[in-house]
Here is the input.
Amino acid sequence: MSKRINTAVWLDKYQRWQIKVRKDGQRKTFTSPTPGRKGQRECNKKADDWLDGVTIDPNIKVGKLWDKMVDELKRTTSEGHWSHYEQYGRNYVSKVIWHRKVSSLREQDLQDVINYAYKNPVGKKPLSQRMLVNIKSSLTSFVKYARRNALTTLRPEFLRIPNDAPRPNKRTLQPEDIRKLFSSDKTVFRNKEVLEWYIHAYRFAAITGLRPGELYGLKRGSVDLKTGICKITGAINAYGKHTHGKNDNAIRSFDLPDLAMQEVRAQLAMLKSAGIISPYLFPEPDGNITRQVVARKRWVRYRQHNDIADISPYELRHTFFSTTKALPEELVKMIGGHSKDFDTFGTYGHSLDGESARAAQLVNSAFAEILSADD
Here is the structure.
């Protein structure tokens, strides 16, 4: 790496600072019209950046740098990650600071983006607190990216989310709805009552708390029919791509409650009866991996036909945690993969000296109690 050994000088004739430097046999001249020592520092910095290999224009606008950041994320992260940055840039950043110089940004400019998003949500619903937090995180990531490229020294510390931003309201199935789920396997298709293809998947999700991506990513071999152990080794995201799951604790192994094993065996029998050969436990009717958008539409149709509360497929996971809330927290987390403090698949593949089996029995009892109760 070349180092500058001279400094910019003021040229009265041209009313500017100027410095000439050389690197790898190439000579380059940098100037700054800003008077005083500030201009000299600007001129020297341009030279230093070139010598250090910094090639991004120091006057680059937010929009261009945001696109560069997204391009880098596309090369290094999943589509589920970078697509959010692309979306936030298009829907909100572009409306407030897109054409501003990165070097001129102040913390209030970033706060203005958050405030704009809060007041001007894309879509019909106001942005939730969680969504605004995600937008805030994307802005701070952008500033870090700009700092790495020596385009700013900004370090935002006081960005805030509006106090009255809607907070998530986690919904669950009530006992009456749970009994409906486990008593009816019918739905309607083209005005005709038919068997719901995903009925065993819905029930399995409620009993185990699996996320939709984990549920539809399950292979036949993910469940050992002899031991009743279920291994979660990844998930399928909304784009139909395999991922490692939401977090480290998403990779886990646990004993299945008896009710869950009943659904697994019923699912395998249904696939055999339909002549479906697929590596997946809960595939689409053609044997291919289930797309979450397809499963969601089928779930809406099923719950409407059976007069079940309006909850999303993901909220079947909330139903699991709600039903088992009276059980020891550490045992429930073992199945749900919800704890940052809990170990991953490599450790508790040994069932933690019987704790996993105990958790399965307790979960089974919690659901059995609900299903055996009178309406």
